[in-house]
Please model this.
Amino acid sequence: MLCGTRGIGAGVALSLARRGAAVTVSGRDADRAAAAAAGLPGTGHGSFACDFADPAGVAAAVAAAGPFDIVLLNTPGHPPGPVDELSAEGLRSAFETMLLPVRGVVDAVLPGMRRNRWGRLIAITSSSVDVPIPGLAGSTVVRSAVRSYLKLLAESAGPDGVTVNHVIPGKVDTDRLRSADAAAARRAGTSPDAVRAATLAEIPVGRYGTPDDVGELVSFLAGDAAAYITGTGIRCDGGYVRAF
Ligand SMILES: NC(=O)c1ccc[n+]([C@@H]2O[C@H](COP(=O)([O-])OP(=O)(O)OC[C@H]3O[C@@H](n4cnc5c(N)ncnc54)[C@H](OP(=O)(O)O)[C@@H]3O)[C@@H](O)[C@H]2O)c1
Model:
């Protein structure tokens, strides 16, 4: 299993480790990744450093650290901005950090999964795949491309016992969300607590999600019980997205 050091990636790592999986943690810093792996329950965990800003380097690092039978495709997001400010360079960088590394990791792990006739590719996407987010134009455009890529991949890999799905988080309480709330508060001239309270009013279950909430869903998708689920995205958002 390939996971992350903080936030949603760490929640997935913990959830799978609790179930007895040997987890490999990746992040930009080797020591931080090693510390995150060392803190997991169970044995057999590992770690390595890679930077999603370098898609070819990520693919090479994953190939060297593998093989993996379950892989979390958890790229960083992209800086905020409206569509009128989405430059060609901004769009290119969104593709380079959010789509090309996914393709690179898939290239590194899918052949082994096909040989084993078993594998799980599970991406973290965003509610923007269902409802575009005007303030996250670059991310919104590329997330849809990621979803299309995963859908095509699910068709190709299904006959070999490999499922391909994505989890669609709503508001998950991580460093990233806390920074986004702080930035929104600065723009609106209010406090992060006020931003949080306004968002909570939009979430039917009345709280932000936790990395563990997402980890439990990913763990289910990673298991044999989810063998018939592929080519789809499943929301984990407390009812936040108002779409069917
Ligand atoms: N939190 C939410 O509410 C939410 C909602 C929808 C979608 N998402 C998406 O879910 C994904 C994860 O979000 P999060 O909230 O878990 O973020 P986070 O708390 O900021 O964690 C980001 C993780 O990615 C790693 N990372 C960051 N930049 C990297 C890079 N260039 N190369 C390699 N690893 C990198 C970090 O590890 P190191 O710092 O150790 O490198 C860390 O483990 C993002 O794509 C985000 O857009 C999040």
Q: What stands out?
A: DSSP finds nine helices and seven strands in the chain.
